[in-house]
Specification:
With 395 residues, the chain is α/β, with parallel strands linked by helices. The chain has 2 domains: 132 residues, Aspartate Aminotransferase, domain 1 (Alpha-Beta Complex), CATH 3.90.1150; 241 residues, Type I PLP-dependent aspartate aminotransferase-like (Major domain) (Aspartate Aminotransferase, domain 2). Helix content is 38%, strand content 14%. Helix 2 packs antiparallel against helix 9 and helix 10 runs parallel beside helix 12. The protein is globular and about 60 Å long. The N and C termini lie far apart (62 Å). The mean pLDDT is 96.
Length: 395
């Protein structure tokens, strides 16, 4: 009889967002007349920008024309798109070759697949609170996980210390769920730590487009030494609304070598073995993001979400609530009001004002007592949710 992967038995019974959806579903069925103000899951509410839609339509028409039809795409990504993304990095002062850029079906897929590069005996450091998939993907692989807690005392941006013994280091900046962003000095400490210890940083840069403070790094490769210790994984889901279209990219420098193995070469071998590449239509649509017109339009959409963040932050300021994030990230991480636990706070908001957020405990034990709001909702819902929050807690 075949033996299944028994590490799945070590996973928590319910994935965070599934548990939330079940609670909301039960409440909605019991109160069908109530409108839900959804600021929990980080899905976008604005449609794809005009430049992308135009390019997608052109790509579909190409597929109906014998001369312009495309079948299999290069497994590592369309050459022109890889060159375009490398030039985008150049705008932040980062020099990359197109061969160091890999087009993917999105950051979530890539964060799981990239673990193929590392032996299962390697350990993984997860800075918590953290995106749950970091932990779950490593549990599934049977990998040892080192949990590094963070908190208000360090702005949820912990420093490395010599006591840490881990091979893979997860860093997300701007962070999901806290919205905190490492500055150059703080991130340099992690780069130096990784190089000194032979570790590899998996740098999740899914929200870099939300950074408005230009003293903050958009890419880990802006820092000296990062090319010998880091892999950067990026998404177009929040940058350009590709949550339902699925496209991202990963940067693996050719200088990243461990035990005589070049991780860039390894990933080429992995992708050419395990994938047939992202579809032509989606890649052509994604290329439009990096045109001047596309950049203008996606930045306008990002400003819409950042205005939502300002509305929510004004409400929390009015109540004197501690929070971080919002300014350079699409998430606001707040201290639960009146000393409530995070799931208690979730239930309280749902029952009293129909506002849905994400309990901090779902992102790790040190998230207990905190709560996350996503700013990807509609303007109308955000304004009303902010009003309801202030009215409820001023009582």
């Amino acid at each position: 009889m075949i033996t299944p992967n028994m590490h799945y038995a070590d996973l928590k019974d319910s994935y965070l967002f599934y548990r939330i959806s079940q609670k909301v579903k039960a409440y909605s069925e019991a109160h069908p007349d109530k409108h839900m103000y959804r600021m929990g899951i980080g899905d976008v509410s604005l449609p794809l920008c005009d430049a992308v839609i135009k390019s997608l339509h052109e790509a579909v028409d190409d597929q109906a024309n014998k001369e312009r039809f495309h079948g299999y795409m290069p497994e590592c990504g369309d050459t022109t798109l890889r060159e375009t993304i490398a030039k985008y990095y150049g705008s932040h002062g980062v020099s990359l070759s197109s061969e160091e850029v890999f087009v993917s079906s999105g950051a979530s897929d890539e964060l799981g697949d990239i673990l193929d590069l590392f032996d299962r005996s390697s350990s993984a450091l997860v800075i918590e609170p953290a995106y749950p998939a970091y932990v779950d993907a490593n549990i599934m692989a049977g990998r040892k996980i080192v949990h590094l807690a963070s908190g208000q005392e360090n702005g949820f941006l912990p420093k490395p210390c010599e006591e840490i013994k881990a091979d893979i280091l997860y860093i997300c900046s701007p962070n999901n769920p806290t919205g905190a962003v490492f500055n150059r000095t703080q991130l340099q400490e992690w780069v130096d730590f990784a190089n000194n210890n032979g570790s590899v940083i998996l740098f999740d840069a899914a929200y870099e487009a939300f950074i408005e403070d230009e003293t903050l790094p958009h890419s880990i490769f802006e820092l000296p030494g990062a090319k010998t210790c880091a892999i950067e994984i990026c998404s177009l889901s929040k940058t350009a609304g590709f949550t339902g279209t699925r496209l991202g990219y990963t940067v693996i420098p050719k200088d990243l070598v461990r035990n005589g193995m070049c991780l860039n070469d390894m990933w080429v071998r992995n992708r050419t073995t395990k994938t047939n590449g992202v579809s032509y239509v989606i890649q052509k649509g994604g290329a439009a993001i990096f045109t001047p017109e596309g950049q203008k339009q996606v930045k306008e959409n990002i400003q819409y979400y950042k205005e939502n963040a300002r509305i929510l932050m004004q409400a929390l300021d009015a109540l004197g609530v501690w929070y971080c994030g919002g300014k350079n990230a699409p998430y606001i991480w707040l201290k639960c009001i009146d000393g409530m636990g995070s799931w208690e706070f979730f239930d309280y908001l749902l029952e009293n004002i129909q506002v849905i957020g994400t309990p901090g405990e779902g992102f790790g034990a040190c998230g207990e007592g905190y709560f996350r709001f996503s700013t990807f909702g509609s303007r109308e819902d955000t304004i009303e949710a902010a009003r309801r929050i202030v009215t409820l807690f001023r009582k």
